[in-house]
Description:
The chain is an alpha+beta fold.
Amino acid sequence: MENSSTPTLEALQQELEKLRAKTTRLEKSRKDQLSIAIVSGDMDRILAAMIISLAAAAMDSKVKLFFSFWSLSALRDPKKKAKGKNFIAKMFGMMLPKGRNKLKLSNM
C-alpha cells in the first residue's frame, strides 16, 4: 500500500528536471561586475577605491581597476632604478612619488 503523501517517481523526475533547468539558468546568468577608474594620485582616494574593490570581490563580483598616469605611482616599486630610459622619461620618474608610501593625502 502506497501512502498518498509520498510523491511518485514521475513527480520526482519532473521536479528534478525543473531544478536542473533552474540551475542551468543561474549558471548562465551574468555575474556582477565592478570597474573603477582611479584617476588621482592621492593616497586617501586610492585607498577608498581599493576598499570598495575589495568589498566587491568579497561578494564574488568581478573587479577591474584602471589606473591613470597620476595614480600609477601607487604601483611603482621604490627599489627599481631607471635603466635604458631617455632624459625625459627619467625626469618624469623623478617627479612622481616612488611607491605607495610616498603618496600624499588630498587637499580637501
